[in-house]
Amino acid sequence: MINGNKLFSAEDISGAIEKIASAIGAEFKGDFSECALVGIHQQGVPCAQLICEELQKKYGSAPVQGKLDISMYRDDIGNRVKLPPIRETEIPFDVNGSSIILVDDVLSTGRTIRAALDALTDYGRAGLIRLAVLVDRGNLEFPIRADYVGLYSTPPADQKIVVRFAEDGDPGIYAVKWENHNL
To answer: Which of 46, 63, 94, 121 has a CA positioned 20 to 30 A from the CA of residue 169?
Structure first.
């Protein structure tokens, strides 16, 4: 159980996934042969999986999927008391010339996306990069905007947004008091 305000339900998450998938499908006209969805660890990975499942359901095909760990690309890596867990990056396709949609659960400051762009370019030069986020918090510190947004929420600055999918138990999107436990 999460100790915080529930902003959105599991049904809201499903609706947001459908909205994102429809927008992606419209841009690529249902042809995902040159497209890939890359989920950013940690919650961007299951979010990308849900989007791919929805695309498969709607269009009969889906983009190839990848997973991206940005831990060592973060601009606060030297300020942390301990190193973050390193997760496996899986890019099972040639990045060069591909249309890539980075996927994350929450767009907050833009720092995670900046790090993801740096990490992704180590694998090659994409032809196109888009950003899909489940929730846009609107608290940007970098000039980064999402191309596909499921939901918008602006909780107070002392709260962070936490996304829990069905496999996490108690699915929903929550605003919880920010604790600097990772620094």
So the answer is: 63
Give the residue-averaged pLDDT of 99-112.
96
Token code pair at residue 175: 């605003």
- Indicate the pTM of the whole model: 0.92
Fold category of 11-76+85-153 in CATH? Rossmann fold (3.40.50)
Span 27-45, average pLDDT:
96
Closest to 35 in 3D by CA, of 50, 19, 52, 47:
52
Kindly tell me if the per-residue pLDDT of 182 is higher than 60.
Answer: no
Annotated domain spans of the chain: 11-76+85-153
Q: Give whole-number Cα distances, 177 to 4, 67, 161, in Å.
A: 7, 28, 9
